Amino acid sequence: MMRLRTGVAATALLLLLAGCTVGPNYHRPTAAASAPAWRENGVPPPNPPNGTWKQAEPSDAVLRGKWWETYDDPQLNALEERIAVSNQTLKVAMEQYFEAREQVQVARSQYYPTLAAGPAVNRTRESNNTPNTVRGLSHYQFNEYSIEGQAQWEPDLWGQVRRTVEETRANAQASAALLANVELSVRAELASDYFEMRGLDSQRQLLDNTVTAYESYLHLTQIRFKGGVATESDVALAQTQLDTTRAQDIDVGVARAQFEHAIATLVGESASTFSLPEMPLGEKIPPVPVGVPSELLERRPDIAAAERQVDAANAQIGVAIAAYYPNVSLTGSGGFLSGTPGTLIQGPSEMWSLGASAVELLFDAGRRHAITQQARDAYEQQVANYRQTVLAAFQDVEDNLAALRILDQESVANEAAVASAQRSLTISTGRYKGGVTTYLEVLTAQTVQLTNERTQEDIATRQFVASVQLIRALGGGWDTTQLPKM
Predict the structure, then answer these.
(1) pLDDT of 128-142, one tens digit each?
(2) What is the DSSP string of 356-420?
(3) Residue 139, by phi and psi: left (phi above 0), alpha (psi -120 to 50) or beta?
(4) Phi, psi of 62 (to 5 degrees)
(5) How close are the terminal C-alpha atoms of the chain, in Å?
(6) Crossing angle of the two packed helices 88-108 and 160-226, in degrees rounded to 10
């Protein structure tokens, strides 16, 4: 018996050693070639003699994990800290990752045999009318007691299990990258909504100050009207301008309330109980270190997720090809069987069996071929999706770099317009007080000034939002080293 067991074990070992992994090995697909520098980020330095270069950056000038802290806003920092524990969208993505991670262990379990064991008790009565019935013995009944264990194993000769593990591991890593992408998107949305709301607070402050100024102008026209210097139409124009500006001031509250409610939802709190105090937008936008385009493939979680999905699709081709090879199964059972409990655990009661089988499918009407081709088509689909994700990522960065550059130019030009409008209003006010012109000229200058000042506040808000979107486009300090190894 010992020699038989040794022979079976040796046979199993030989089968394992003879096994192979069918299907193509994974190689990361090529993506669109990237330039040595961002087009919208200035002119790159000349190439060194070896033809490759990378912009030098100090180690403290790179995006960190808590990228929102670069804005130096304690209120924003406190809100962002609540995202990880309260946002329900993020929790959904997290549970999806946990589910994919457990699937890896499910796949790995197929490396090992299944074992089962347990006792059994049977009482049997044999028929008197069977051909083997002993004459003279009627109603023969007996008991059987047994303790038996069973083992079954399908060795991974063709790499089907290995490819399945490879696929589930890649899917779990893709899920982890998608989780990081959801977190990045949610945090960026929170920061954008926050700065939009603060921009509206700046608009509200501007309009409040303008209402106060227009009240003074109305008082001036009323005094001049009582003195017979101004006309009643001047008073009406000043009153209309004041009332219109008050209405604009009130209207800002609609959008502000909506952004405040959106922030409440993002941090997992009911909009009915959430509020933030009014605080105008800051003036300084922190610089965003953009690095070089080649780094984007490692820094964008959505690109990493798409690449991992390509790996999973490649592994599925191997799983499909393995179906062309025979399924080999090793089975064994052993234990004790006796008619009485007292003799159950004894040498004569021992029993065992060993077996092996191999089954090869001879005809399936092209099913395996179709499944394999389907897996190859799915792989090509994921490759195309990966390349498109890379292209979209480059566009995303360039769009926001362009937005920041153009908004900076617009801000400079509009600052000059604001200064000119202020000077025009000062001149018109002086001319009106001197009786040289009517109030219509003052009202026109007021309208131009307020329009330019509101435009300036809007530009500042858009600059902050564009900087947040640029950070999101660059990956927000994430990189592929954060993917779980599995």
Answers:
(1) 766 666 655 555 778
(2) EEEE-----TTHHHHHHHHHHHHHHHHHHHHHHHHHHHHHHHHHHHHHHHHHHHHHHHHHHHHHH
(3) left
(4) -125, 155
(5) 41
(6) 170
Backbone torsions φ then ψ of 142, nearest 5 degrees = -155, 165
Of the candidates 94, 116, 106, 77, the residue with the CA atom closest to the CA atom of residue 164: 106
Q: φ, ψ for residue 274 (rounded to 5)?
A: -105, 140
- pLDDT tens digits along 190-249: 999 999 999 999 999 999 999 999 999 999 999 999 988 889 999 999 999 999 999 999
* Whole-number Å distance between alpha carbons of 323 and 263: 52
Residues 6 or more apart in contact with residue 423 via CB below 8 angstroms = none
In which band, very low, low, confident or very high, does the pLDDT at 79 lie, cut at 50, 70 and 90? very high
Quote the CA–CA distance of 136 and 223 in Å, as a whole number: 136
329: phi then psi, degrees, rounded to nearest 5: -130, 135
Q: Are the beta carbons of 52 and 464 closer than 8 angstroms?
A: no
Q: Which residues contact 437 (CB under 8 A, 6 or more apart)?
A: 428, 431
According to the model, what pLDDT value does residue 136 have? Answer: 56
Residue that has been written with the tokens 């025009």 in this structure: 424
User: How many whole angstroms separate alpha carbon 241 and alpha carbon 388?
Assistant: 52
- Mean pLDDT over 22-30 rounds to 92
Which domains are assigned to the chain?
76-117+141-482 (1.20.1600.10)
In the structure encoding, which two tokens stand for residue 431, read together? 């001319």
CA–CA distance, 271 with 423 (Å, rounded to integer): 44
Q: Which amino acid is at 94?
A: M
Kindly report the number of other CB atoms within 10 A of residue 284's CB atom.
Answer: 8
Q: Which helix (H) or strand (E) holds 332?
A: strand 327-338
